[in-house]
C-alpha cells in the first residue's frame, strides 16, 4: 500500500511547552488512521501542523514521499488535505450551498452558484448523501450540519481528510452512518486521519497511533490490539472503565418534578411537560444530544430560569420559581456544563472560587469583609481533599486544566449540598483518569444518601452510574428506562426522537 | 391656512426629507458594509466629521467641489485604515477604538481648522446646487420632491441597490458577510481574514466619509466645530433599526430624516411646541427605538468580536 502522507521528526513548541516532540507518523492510501490520546497529548497540534494552521519548529511533512512546505490552510487545500473541525466552522445564517462555496470562487464578480450546485449534486449522489443545498444551516440538526462540513472538504477535492472528534455531537445511529460514508471514501482512495480520545471511535480505524505528552507511544494495527491495551498506552497506567456501583435500595423521594415547562428567550418552549423523580441513593441519568433541553432543565432546577408551568418538590417543599440562593440554602448543589463560564470565575483565585456563592456565610466573612484566613484554610483543605493540582490557592482558576477546574466546582458544591446534586455534563472533555475520578465522587455521594441528577452525552457515563436513564429530545422526555435492561442502541434511537416504553408514561396512564 | 400653502409645506417637508437623508444614506450604507464584515465601528461620527472637514478644506482651497468630494472619500478611507489597524491588527475592543477615533477627529479637525484660517475670517465656498432632471422634475409633487435635488442625492439613492447587489449577489459580498458571521470559516479555507476586514472597513469608511463630505458640500458653505452634530450616532441607530439590511436601513434613515424635516418645518409654521424639543425629536425617537427594539435577528453573529485563531 502506498503512503499518502508521512510526518518525520515533527516538533512543535509553544512558549516552552513541547506539544509535539519528534513525532513520526505515516498515513497509507485508503486507510483510516487514528490519532489517539488524552487532551493535551498533542493530537490537535499535529493535525494543525499538517493542515497549515501552525508551522512546525522542526521536522518534515511528505506527500507521496515528496517533502512539502505547508505554510497555511491554503497550501494544505492545494495539496488535497481537508479538515473537519470538532467545533463546526459553519455560518448558520448561510445556506448549505453558500457555506460550501464561500471563499472558493477565484474569478468573476457574480456568485457562480449554478456550477457549484452541479458539482455538489454529483458528490452527493456518489456517496448517497441526501442534503438540501438551499436549506439554511441553522435549520439543520447538528448531525446533518456535519455533512455540510464533509461536503466542504469533498467540494475542494480533498484526498486526505482529517476528522477531529467527529462523533462528539452525534447519536449512535448518526455515528454509524458517518463511518459508513467514511469507509466509502477510503474505498475511493481517500485517506483519513481520525483524531479522538474515545475508544468507540478508535475501534472504527485500521491503524492507531497513540500519543502521550506530545510523543508517539506506539503505532499499532487496530485488529491486533484491544481497548484495554490502547487505554493503558494512552494514560500510561491501567484504567478501570467500569467503576463498581454497589446495589443500594432507593430511599425516600428527594426531588419530584411534575409537568415542568419552560420558555426560551424568544418565547419558544424549551422544556415540555417534564416529569420524573429521584430518591436517596439514586442517580437519575439524563441522556440526549447536547442542546435538547438539558441545560434549561438544570437551570430551572437550580433556580436560574423560571419555569412556565409545573411543580418541583424538593424534600417535600414546593421550590419551583425560587431564587438560586434559596435553592443553595436548601442544599441543592449544581455542577453546570460550562465550567469556565458558569462553574467558576476564571480570573478569580482557586480560594475565591472555592468560597464563591458562600461569601455571605458567617464562616467566611467578618461583617462586610471576607475572612481571608478562613477562606484560605478552606481552600487548602479542599485542594488536599480533592487532589486539585495547583501551585497554591492563589493561582487563577482559569490557569488550571479542565479536570482541576472541575474538581474546584465539585469541592464547592459537595461541601454545601445536602440531599441533591445536579451535575450537567460533569465529564465533558475530561481525560480518562479524571472521568474515573468524577464518577467515583458521584458514586460516593450516592452512597452517602444523596439523590443525583446527572446529564451526560457519554452513554458510558450513564450506563456506569445511573440507576435510571431519562432520554431527552427537544425539551421532552422520550422515556425513562432501566440501564440494566436496555441497550445503548435503544437509548440511541430515543435520543433521535423515538418514544420509548417508560416508567413515567405508564405512571401517567394510571394516574 | 390656504390649501395652496398646505400643499407647499407638505412638498417642502418631503423634499427636505430627501435632502437630509442622502448624506446619512451614504454613511449608513458604508457603516452597513463595515458592520456586516464584523467590525462594530463606533467611529462613524468622527469619520463623517473628518470627511466634512476634508471637503471644506479642498473646496475652499481649490474651488473644485468634485475634488472636495474625492477628498472626503480619501479622508474616510484613511479613517478606515486607522479603525482596521486597531480592530483587525491590534484586536482592540471595537467600541473603544471607535470612541477614541471620535475624540481624535473632533480635536484634530478643530486644530487643523484653526491653523488653516489662522485668525482670518473663515473662507466660504458655494456648494452643490439642485440639478433638475428634465421632464421628470415637472411632475407635480413627485417632481420637486424627487427629481429636483443635488447631483449626489441621485447617486446616494442608487447606492442602496448597489450595496444590496454587492452583499447578496457577488462573491465578495458572500465573503464579507462571512466575516461578520464566522470569520473562521474563511480562515480554514486559507483566506486572510484581516486583509478582507481592512478592505471592508476602508470601503465602508470611504462611503461614511463621503456622507460627511456631502453634508458639507450640499448644505453648508463653512465649517463649524462639531459640524456633524450627532448624525453619526443616528447612522448607528439606523443600522440597528434597519436590522442590518440595506432596505431596512433605507427605511430607518428615511424615517429619521422625515422627523428632522418635520421638526424644522413645525418651527417655521410656528407650532406651539418648544423648538428645542422639536430639534431633539430624531434623537428622542432613536432612544425610544433602541429601548423598544429587541428584534436583532439580522445582527451579524460575530459583530464586534475581534478574530483570533485559538
TrEMBL record, chain A:
Instruction: Answer whether the UniProt record assigns the keyword ATP-binding to this protein.
Output: yes
Describe the family membership recorded for this protein in Swiss-Prot or TrEMBL.
Belongs to the ABC transporter superfamily.
Q: Which PANTHER family match?
A: CARBOHYDRATE TRANSPORT ATP-BINDING PROTEIN MG119-RELATED, GUANOSINE IMPORT ATP-BINDING PROTEIN NUPO
Please, which domain of life does this record's source organism belong to?
A: Bacteria
Gene Ontology MF, one: ATP binding
Q: Which UniProt keywords apply?
A: ATP-binding, Nucleotide-binding
* Name of this chain's protein: ABC transporter ATP-binding protein
- Which InterPro entries did the record assign? AAA+_ATPase, ABC_carbohydrate_import_ATPase, ABC_transporter-like_ATP-bd, ABC_transporter-like_CS, P-loop_NTPase
Q: Where is the ABC transporter domain?
A: 5-238, 255-499
Family matches, as PROSITE patterns? ABC_TRANSPORTER_1, ABC_TRANSPORTER_2
The record, for Gene3D superfamilies, names: P-loop containing nucleotide triphosphate hydrolases (3.40.50.300)
- Residue intervals passing through the bilayer: none
Q: Which Pfam families match?
A: ABC_tran (PF00005)
UniProtKB/TrEMBL annotation, chain B:
* Membrane spanning residue stretches: 6-26, 38-59, 65-88, 95-113, 151-168, 198-217, 223-242, 249-269, 275-293
Any single Pfam family the record assigns to this protein: BPD_transp_2
Give the InterPro entries listed for this entry. Answer: ABC_transp_permease
Which key words are in the record? Cell membrane, Membrane, Transmembrane, Transmembrane helix
Subcellular location, in the record's words? Answer: Cell membrane
Q: Which GO terms describe its molecular function?
A: transmembrane transporter activity
Superkingdom of source: Bacteria
Membrane topology field: Multi-pass membrane protein
Q: Which GO terms describe its cellular component?
A: plasma membrane
User: What is the designated name of this protein?
Assistant: ABC transporter permease
* Species for this entry: Aminobacter anthyllidis
Amino acid at each position: 500500500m502506498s503512503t499518502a502522507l508521512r510526518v518525520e521528526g515533527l516538533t512543535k513548541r509553544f512558549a516552552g511547552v513541547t506539544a509535539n516532540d519528534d513525532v513520526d507518523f505515516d498515513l497509507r492510501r485508503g486507510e483510516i488512521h487514528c490519532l489517539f490520546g488524552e487532551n493535551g497529548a498533542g493530537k490537535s497540534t499535529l493535525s494543525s501542523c499538517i493542515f497549515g494552521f501552525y508551522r512546525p519548529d522542526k521536522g518534515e511533512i511528505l506527500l507521496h514521499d515528496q517533502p512539502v512546505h505547508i505554510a497555511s490552510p491554503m497550501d494544505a487545500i492545494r495539496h488535497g488535505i481537508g479538515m473537519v473541525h470538532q467545533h463546526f466552522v459553519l455560518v448558520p445564517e448561510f445556506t448549505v450551498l453558500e457555506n460550501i462555496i464561500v471563499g472558493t470562487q477565484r474569478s468573476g464578480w457574480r456568485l457562480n452558484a449554478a456550477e457549484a450546485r452541479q458539482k455538489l449534486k454529483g458528490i452527493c449522489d456518489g456517496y448517497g448523501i441526501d442534503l438540501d443545498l438551499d436549506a439554511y444551516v441553522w435549520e439543520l440538526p447538528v448531525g446533518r450540519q456535519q455533512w455540510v462540513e464533509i461536503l466542504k472538504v469533498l467540494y475542494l477535492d480533498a484526498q486526505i481528510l482529517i476528522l477531529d472528534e467527529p462523533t462528539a455531537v452525534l447519536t449512535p445511529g448518526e455515528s454509524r452512518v458517518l463511518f459508513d460514508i467514511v469507509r466509502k471514501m477510503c474505498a475511493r482512495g481517500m485517506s483519513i486521519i481520525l483524531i479522538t480520545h474515545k475508544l468507540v471511535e478508535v475501534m472504527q480505524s485500521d491503524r492507531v497511533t497513540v500519543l502521550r505528552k506530545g510523543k508517539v507511544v506506539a503505532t499499532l494495527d487496530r485488529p491486533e490490539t484491544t481497548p484495554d491495551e490502547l487505554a493503558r498506552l494512552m494514560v500510561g497506567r491501567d484504567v478501570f472503565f467500569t467503576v463498581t456501583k454497589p446495589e443500594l435500595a432507593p430511599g425516600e423521594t428527594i426531588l419530584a418534578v411534575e409537568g415542568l415547562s419552560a420558555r426560551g428567550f424568544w418565547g419558544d418552549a424549551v422544556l415540555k411537560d417534564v416529569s420524573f423523580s429521584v430518591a436517596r441513593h439514586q442517580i437519575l441519568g439524563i441522556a440526549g444530544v447536547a442542546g435538547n433541553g438539558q441545560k434549561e432543565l438544570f437551570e430551572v432546577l437550580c433556580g436560574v430560569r423560571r419555569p412556565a408551568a409545573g411543580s418541583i418538590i424538593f424534600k417535600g417543599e414546593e421550590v419551583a420559581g425560587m431564587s438560586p440562593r434559596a435553592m443553595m440554602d436548601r442544599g441543592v448543589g449544581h455542577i453546570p456544563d460550562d465550567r469556565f463560564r458558569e462553574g467558576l470565575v476564571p480570573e478569580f483565585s482557586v480560594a475565591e472560587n472555592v468560597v464563591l456563592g458562600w461569601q455571605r456565610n458567617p464562616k467566611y466573612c467578618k461583617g462586610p469583609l471576607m475572612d481571608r484566613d478562613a477562606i484560605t484554610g478552606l481552600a487548602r483543605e479542599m485542594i488536599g481533599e480533592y487532589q486539585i493540582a495547583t501551585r497554591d490557592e492563589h493561582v487563577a482558576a482559569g490557569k488550571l486544566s479542565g479536570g482541576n477546574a472541575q474538581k474546584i466546582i465539585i469541592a464547592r458544591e459537595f461541601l454545601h449540598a445536602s440531599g441533591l446534586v445536579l451535575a450537567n455534563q460533569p465529564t465533558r472533555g475530561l481525560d480518562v483518569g479524571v472521568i474515573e475520578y468524577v464518577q467515583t465522587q458521584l458514586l460516593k455521594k450516592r452512597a452517602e444518601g444523596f439523590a443525583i441528577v446527572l446529564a451526560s452525552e457519554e452513554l458510558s457515563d450513564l450506563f456506569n452510574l445511573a440507576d435510571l436513564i431519562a432520554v431527552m429530545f427537544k425539551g421532552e422526555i422520550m422515556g425513562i428506562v432501566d440501564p440494566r435492561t436496555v441497550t445503548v442502541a435503544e437509548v440511541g434511537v430515543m435520543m433521535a426522537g423515538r418514544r420509548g416504553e417508560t416508567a413515567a408514561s405508564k405512571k401517567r396512564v394510571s394516574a | 391656512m390656504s390649501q395652496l400653502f398646505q400643499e407647499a409645506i407638505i412638498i417642502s417637508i418631503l423634499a427636505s426629507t430627501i435632502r437630509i437623508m442622502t448624506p446619512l444614506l451614504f454613511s449608513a450604507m458604508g457603516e452597513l458594509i463595515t458592520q456586516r464584515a464584523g467590525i462594530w465601528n463606533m467611529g462613524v461620527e468622527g469619520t463623517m466629521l473628518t470627511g466634512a472637514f476634508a471637503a471644506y478644506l479642498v473646496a475652499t482651497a481649490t474651488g473644485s467641489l468634485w475634488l472636495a468630494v474625492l477628498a472626503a472619500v480619501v479622508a474616510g478611507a484613511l479613517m478606515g485604515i486607522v479603525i482596521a489597524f486597531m480592530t483587525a491588527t491590534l484586536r482592540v475592543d471595537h467600541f473603544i477604538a471607535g470612541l477614541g477615533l471620535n475624540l481624535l477627529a473632533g480635536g484634530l479637525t478643530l486644530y487643523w481648522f484653526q491653523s488653516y484660517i489662522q485668525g482670518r475670517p473663515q473662507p466660504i465656498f458655494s456648494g452643490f446646487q439642485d440639478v433638475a432632471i428634465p421632464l421628470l422634475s415637472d411632475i407635480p409633487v413627485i417632481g420637486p420632491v424627487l427629481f429636483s435635488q443635488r447631483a449626489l442625492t441621485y447617486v446616494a439613492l442608487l447606492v442602496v441597490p448597489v450595496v444590496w447587489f454587492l452583499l447578496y449577489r457577488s462573491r465578495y459580498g458572500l465573503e464579507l458577510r462571512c466575516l461578520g458571521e464566522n470569520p473562521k470559516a474563511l480562515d480554514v479555507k486559507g483566506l486572510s481574514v484581516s486583509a478582507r476586514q481592512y478592505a471592508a472597513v476602508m470601503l465602508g469608511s470611504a462611503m461614511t466619509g463621503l456622507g460627511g463630505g456631502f453634508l458639507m458640500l450640499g448644505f453648508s458653505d463653512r465649517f463649524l466645530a462639531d459640524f456633524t452634530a450627532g448624525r453619526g450616532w443616528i447612522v448607528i441607530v439606523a443600522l440597528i433599526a434597519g436590522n442590518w439590511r440595506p432596505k431596512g436601513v433605507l427605511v430607518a434613515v428615511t424615517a429619521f430624516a422625515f422627523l428632522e424635516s418635520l421638526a424644522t418645518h413645525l418651527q417655521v409654521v410656528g407650532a406651539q411646541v418648544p423648538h428645542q424639543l422639536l430639534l431633539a425629536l430624531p434623537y428622542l425617537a432613536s432612544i425610544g427605538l433602541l429601548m423598544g427594539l429587541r428584534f436583532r435577528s439580522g445582527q451579524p453573529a460575530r459583530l464586534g468580536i475581534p478574530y483570533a485563531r485559538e
